[in-house]
Each structure stands twice: as structure tokens, then as C-alpha cells.
Amino acid sequence: MVDKLHIVGGGMAGSEAAWQAARMGVSVVLHEMRPHVETFAHQTGHLAEMVCSNSFRSDDDEQNAVGLLHWEMRAADGLIMKKADKHRIPAGGALAVDRNPFAQSVTEALKAMPNVEVSYGEITELPEDGHWIIATGPLTSGHLANALQAETGKEALAFFDAIAPIIYSDSIDMSKAWMQSRYDKGETEAERTAYLNCPMDRAQYEAFIDALLAAEKTEFKEGETAGYFDGCLPIEVMAERGRETLRFGPMKPVGLTNAHQPDVKPYAVVQLRRDNALGTLFNIVGFQTKMKYGAQTEVLRTIPGLEDARFARLGGIHRNTFLNSPILLDNQMRLKSKPHIRFAGQITGVEGYVESAAMGLLAGRFAAAELLGMPLALPPRKTAMGALIAHITGGADAKTFQPMNVNFGLFPPVDGLKAGRKGRKDRYKAYTDRAKTLWTEWLNQGALNAA
């Protein structure tokens, strides 16, 4: 018999870590503080609840790094991808899920495993012994965050994350809005019409920017600073960087034709993505915000088609804690000062649901292999998971370390391929082909070690 593995945090990373370790034969105790201790962003007590977007982003495993990460997780029998596929809803070339059934199915799958115990209650201190994975994500509790700060000093960092609003679909004026995925992307009609589009002419866009800049914003507490992650900026922060920033970001009009006025090219477009399988809820894509609630409803109702919008959830802002992993963690995500504790997920400095779950997958396998006396080699750096873990545990500059999405810039180059935009398609295909071969070999080697 081996000792139990304790995992703190039942989000994407913790749930995936528990699944992987339990599948390897280790007894797991998954500690989740919700619903006894609530957070600003969570709505339920389910494991793996999606609190921001409902998108896992691109599912293209030949031309996109996050799509490749999907592929690697599926190949490793990942729970998060298994349930995401089961509860998939149309989103063009992206993988979006019906968030509540998805979280419920993850919860049911883990509770059905005989060697997994889900323990509800808050862990407030760093454990002094045993085998632990801390996967508390962006909303690490204040007590545990203080314990981390005491252990790591100034090297524990924090930034602010923002949530996008969700709108009831029957309150959207479809005489102004239309359904279309950008560039009509998707293999089915449902995929090609997965997004709801609200067009703006130049005057409407300028008025929207003015209202956005003038709106009341959430104030920070004394001593707090806004160190936003660039991949998840509030819309008003983007607007402050330049009046055209949003038009070249989440409001870009390219690849879309207004079904009501096909001869008139919109100056800007606000996109909404279906948030549940019924199609009764839509979230505004890229519209994370720190506007106060009253200001949100006023500003967002200036968008054509959303004049009478009813909100299922307004946007918000919350503190997001992560570690300076290049300094604090070893290459298997163990805390150097307390190597019986591993970290996984967003707290390690990855950004995104998929990246967080992927680090949970690795942490669960590493911890289980260690408990079983079968140490596991690191995945090759030429795989998506190998590139990501190498970046956060030493490849990044610790002085400027910020949360990172998976991207091909983290991969070692393929020799002999043309650089620049013209050679990008062939280069990305070479990256993904190489990664799939190496990832399969790594998985098989782990299976041989366990045999």
C-alpha cells in the first residue's frame, strides 16, 4: 500500500490530477472548499466549474498549439477533454462546452471512482508532510495565499482577472444581429453559424468608446495594483490603450458579412458565443470588464441589438494569485523548499482552462509515479505539454514572469523550415506532427514503466 495523494482545489487542474493519479492506482483525497467557502466568481459547488469563458479555444490540432494540447490530453485519456467533448456546443473551429452539465459530469466521474474521496473544507496552511498537489487556481483562499506568501516571500505574485457578462438570448434583437462564425469557419451549419454578431458603424463605435471610458469602474483596495494578464484584459483597459485597440481585438469586423445589410461593411462587430446547449445564454466574447454593475448595463445596451438585453450574469474582477514558478518550482512542479508539495494549474503561471488542466494531468502522473516508486521522465520539450512545463519551470525569465498560454513560440524550431508568415502553415504542421509522435512515445514509455 502507498500513501494517499492529497490534492487541494477541485478546478480543472485538481480534477484532472485526481483522475490521472487514481487511474494509475493511487488513492486520492481531493479537497475542495466550495460550497462551504464561496468565491466571488463561482456559482455552484461542482468540480471543474468554468467561471470565465465557456471556451477551450481552438480545436485545430494541426495548426494551433492549444488544439495540439487538446490532442495530447485526449491521447492521455484526460477527464477534462472527455467531458468537454461530451458536452460540446457549436463554436466554429473552437471547442466550447455547456458549462453546468460539463462540471456536473466531471464531479460525478470522480465521485464514482472507488479510490477517490472528495473532502469538502478549506485547507488553510501548507502541509508539513505527506504527498500533496496544490491546484487552487486563480481564486486561492486568503488563508492559503497568506501561507504561500509566508513561505515564498516577495516571489509570490498576483494579478487581476476579469469576467465577461452573459446575456439571455431572447432579449437580443435579431433584426439587427445575425449568426455567423468568422470566415464561416466550421464543418457543419451549426459551427458556421455559432456566433451572434452585433454590428457598429463608426459613429456607434466612437460613442461606445466614449461611454466605456467615462463609465464608473471598480476601485482597487489600498495597496493593490492592477497587473493584468494581456490575454484577458478588461475592455476598458484596452480602450484606454487607444481608441482603435478594441476594433483590432475582440471587436474586429473581418471575416463577417451583415446578413441584414450585406453591402455595408461594419466598422466594428461585437461577437457573442452560445454559453449553453439550449442556446438560451450567450456570453460576450472578449468583453471581460471591471465596470460597476450599473455602468455595465448602460454601456452594453448601447451596442446595436443589445438595447433591451437582460443579463444572466454581469462581468466582474477578482484577484488571481500565481507563483514565480521559474524560481520556486523544480522541473516536476515541486516546491523547492518543500518538495513533498507540487503545484498544478493556473497558480503555476499558465493561463487558460486547457493549460491548467494539462498541468494537472502532468502533476497527477508525476505524483502517482513517485508514490508508486516508478519515477516518470519529463515529457519531451517538443510536445505541447513539455514546452509549457519547461517554460514555467525554468524557460521563462523570472524577472518578467507572467501567466502564459501555450503557443508555438515555446517549441524548439524544426530545422530546415522557412521562417516568417509564408512558411507558417508548413511549420505549424511540422510542429504538431513531431509533437504527436513524441507524446505517443512518452505515454507508451510511462505505460511500460507501470507494467
TrEMBL record:
It is found in: Cytoplasm. SUPFAM superfamilies: FAD/NAD(P)-binding domain (SSF51905). Its EC number is 2.1.1.74. Its cofactor is FAD. Transmembrane segments: none annotated. Residues 5-374 form the MnmG N-terminal domain. It comes from the Bacteria. The keyword Isomerase does not apply. InterPro entries: FAD/NAD-bd_sf, MnmG-rel, MnmG-rel_CS, MnmG_N, TrmFO. Its main location: cytoplasm. Gene3D superfamilies: FAD/NAD(P)-binding domain (3.50.50.60). FAD binds at G9, G10, G11, M12, A13, G14. Keywords: Cytoplasm, FAD, Flavoprotein, Methyltransferase, NAD, NADP, Transferase, tRNA processing. It catalyses: uridine(54) in tRNA + (6R)-5,10-methylene-5,6,7,8-tetrahydrofolate + NADPH + H(+) = 5-methyluridine(54) in tRNA + (6S)-5,6,7,8-tetrahydrofolate + NADP(+); uridine(54) in tRNA + (6R)-5,10-methylene-5,6,7,8-tetrahydrofolate + NADH + H(+) = 5-methyluridine(54) in tRNA + (6S)-5,6,7,8-tetrahydrofolate + NAD(+). Belongs to the MnmG family. TrmFO subfamily. NAD-binding protein involved in the addition of a carboxymethylaminomethyl (cmnm) group at the wobble position (U34) of certain tRNAs, forming tRNA-cmnm(5)s(2)U34. This is Methylenetetrahydrofolate--tRNA-(uracil-5-)-methyltransferase TrmFO. It comes from Parasulfitobacter algicola. The lineage of its organism: Bacteria, Pseudomonadati, Pseudomonadota, Alphaproteobacteria, Rhodobacterales.
